[in-house]
Amino acid sequence: MRVAVVGLGHIGLPLAVQYASRGHEVVGCDVDAGRVEAVNRGASPHQDEPAVVERVPELVASGRLRATSDDAEGVHGADAVVVIVPVVVGDQRRVDFGQIDAATRDLARGLGPGTLVVYETTLPVGTTRHRFGPMLEQGSGLQLDRDLFLAFSPERVLVGRVLLDLQRYPKIVGGTGEEATRRAVAFYEAALEPGTEIRALASAEAAEMTKLAETTYRDVNIALANEFARYAARHGIDVTEVIDAANSQPYSHIHQPGVGVGGHCIPVYPHFLFGTDADLQLPPLARRINDGMGRWTVDLLRDRIGPLEGVPVLVLGIAYRADVREDAFSSAFRLRDELLAAGARVLGHDPYFDAGHLRSLGFEPWDPAEPAPVRAAVLQAGHDAYRALEPAAIPGLELLVDGRNALDRGRWEREGVGYVGIGR
Ligand SMILES: NC(=O)c1ccc[n+]([C@@H]2O[C@H](COP(=O)([O-])OP(=O)(O)OC[C@H]3O[C@@H](n4cnc5c(N)ncnc54)[C@H](O)[C@@H]3O)[C@@H](O)[C@H]2O)c1
User: Fold this and answer.
1) Is position 232 within any domain?
2) 200-222: per-residue pLDDT in tens?
3) In the chain, how many domains are there?
4) Which of 5, 6, 8, 11 to mutate to test the pocket of ligand 1 (most atoms within 8 A of CB)?
C-alpha cells in the first residue's frame, strides 16, 4: 500500500514508522520544514522513542519512508491517509480546529478516487462526518462513500511507547459508512502488527465517543477519589489504605486522589463531551471537583500553618505528571494562582525545567544548590528525583503537603517536618 501520514509529530512519526516497518510505502507530511528535512536526512526529529529513532534511518535508506511539507503532494496516489494533526484547546477550553482544518483543505486537493482517509486526532463527536466530510468532498471533487472513504480511529497510545501500545491496545475504528469501516479495518490489519485486535464500531461517532468516554471516565473516577480523600481527611482515615483495600475487590477500580489533574487529555476531553451537550451532569461536576483541589490544598496549608500572607511556599514539580518535561494544563498553575490569591510567595522547582522557564510560568525559581528558606512545600508532580529528597535540603520547612501521596511520611516526620498527604 501507499500510505500518507499527515502530521509527523510525537504520535504521527511512530505511526509512519510502524506502517513502513510492515513493508508499506509511507510518505509523512508536515508543515514543519525542520521535521521534514530531518526525516529525509534519515534522522528522527523526536528523541522520545528509542525504537523510532533507531528505525528511521534504515526505513528512509530503503525508500519506504520519506517526508514532504506539501500535504497535497504527499497524499497523491495514496491508498490510505492517516491524519494526526492536533486540535488545540485554549485556556477557556475553546476548541481550535485551525491546524487540522488547514491540513484537511490541503490534503483534499491531492486525493484520488478510492482513497481511505482516517482521522486519529481526538475530536468532538460528529466532527469527522460533519466537519471534515464536506471539506474533503469540496476540496477533492470526490463523493463520500462512492469514491472517497472516511473513518475515525482514536489514538490511545502514550508518547514514548507508541510502537508497543499499538500492539497492545485494540484498534477501534468506525466509518461514516459500512464500506469505509470495512476499508479501515482492512487498512489497520495490513498496517499494524499481525494479531493486533481491530475492533469495528457501528459509526465514526461511536469511535469518536470512545476516546472521550475513556478519558472522561478517568476524570470522573479521580474526582470520586478526591471526594473520598476529603471525606477521609475529615474523619481521620488514610484514604490510600482504603483505596488499596477497596480495589482488592475485582469490581472496584478507584483511581488515586491528588492536588489536581493536568495534561493534554484528561482535563480537556471531557469538555469535548459536555461542551456540546448540557444534559451531561457528572463530567462537568468532576471537572469542578478536580479543579478545586488546588484551593483545598491551600486551605489545608492555612489550617496547619496559619495565614499565608508573605509566607514562602515551594511547589515541587511543575510538570503535569511525574517524570515528563511537559506542563500542558498542569495543575501547578491552579495551585500557583490559589497561593498567590492567599498572599503567599510562590517558589517553584522542577528538575525538568530551567530557572528561566519556571520564571516565565510565574514561579520564583528555587535553587537546591542555594536553597532559599520556605515554610511549606507542596509536592505537585511526583518526579522520581523527589523520592530521595532529604528534609534538610529545604531550610525552614515546617510542613510538607504530599500532593501525590508519593513520599515516605516517616522520613519527614523523623526530621521534625509536618507531613500531610491528600486524604492521609
Ligand atoms: N501526545 C500524546 O500523548 C497523544 C496521545 C494520544 C493521542 N494524541 C493525539 O494525537 C494528536 C497529535 O499529537 P502529537 O503529540 O503527535 O502532536 P505534535 O504537536 O507532536 O505533532 C503534530 C504535528 O502536526 C504538524 N502539523 C500542523 N499542521 C499541519 C498541517 N496543516 N499539515 C501537516 N502537518 C501539520 C505539526 O507541525 C506537528 O509536527 C493530538 O492532538 C491528540 O489528539 C496525542
Assistant:
1) no
2) 999 999 999 999 999 999 999 99
3) 2
4) 11
